[in-house]
Specification:
There is one protein chain. The strands form 2 sheets. A 6-stranded mixed beta sheet has the order 3-2-1-4-7-8, sandwiched between helices. It has 2 domains: 48 residues, no CATH class; 226 residues, 3-Layer(aba) Sandwich (Rossmann fold), CATH 3.40.50.410. The protein is α/β, with parallel strands linked by helices. α4 runs parallel beside α5. The chain contains 7 helices and 8 strands, in the order αβαββααβββαβαβα. The two termini are 38 Å apart.
Amino acid sequence: MRLSFAPSVLALALAAACTPPAPLTENDIASCSNGRDDDEDTLVDCADPTCSLFAFCGTDAGTPDGGVDASFDAFGLDVPDAPPTCAAPLDVALVLDVSSTMGAELIAIQAALPSIWTRAHELDPTAQFSLVVFVDDVLLVNECAPFATVESLVAAIETYRVLAPMNRNVADPTLPNQDCPENSMDALFDAATECTFRSGSTRVFWHATDDTFAERPAVLSGEWGGGVFVQSTYAEAGTAMVTRNIHLGSLARTGAGEFCGAGTTLDVGIGFHTPFGTQLSLPQVTNGAVWDQRGLGSTLDLAAEMRALIERHHPCD
């Protein structure tokens, strides 16, 4: 995890003065869905060929799992055509907020995992599950290596659930978590770019958080000194997942968040249940799914929903 602290105001000013203007581009989820001609080529959003990479532009219909076409390499990445789905390995990464208010959600995820693990291994006997946890900072557990058994994965989540009431960070436990937003964007970006996925695999992220997020250059918990400097933007996290053919299933709340000790977020569903400004929600842009945490214990069958997301992209029956 890239962990750093807030830069000085002088350093920021000097950096801004020396930074040349950014080139005009229209090739990420923000610029391809904002209704503007960002690269000034007279083509707006999905009419611009460089936006063809994204599912919401409708060019992925020919791929079996809603993937991207190898003929488009707008981000300098080698993205292969989607293979026949049953021939593909299945890679699942859990990207979990383990802050102090997530206890009930982590218990629900642990309870759902055996059923999901079993179904994934019915579809692909070599299915792999890895774990990424985050609060203000991010930790790729065991460097994102896959777990050998579902019991070991559940036990790893339990370790962080037990530590959650201490309200500390995960990569650097000396740093307290003192504000409401958690670092979903760095967690998703790091998982997409630093975890190792098998060639041609069907890739599914299971993300869970109960609060909002921040973007670069925000400093989480920085009001009290120190803090964690956010490295990624919303558009960068979404683009990283799309270009690597990752489908995001997000367990997130809607409406106002719970009191976090430092206040209450007015709308924690932005970016997951609803768009983030002019940008589509991350589950929508990755052809994934989103579930309301408020349904846990009543209307939401978490295991069934996560199994359904995996089956939709890896339909091997």
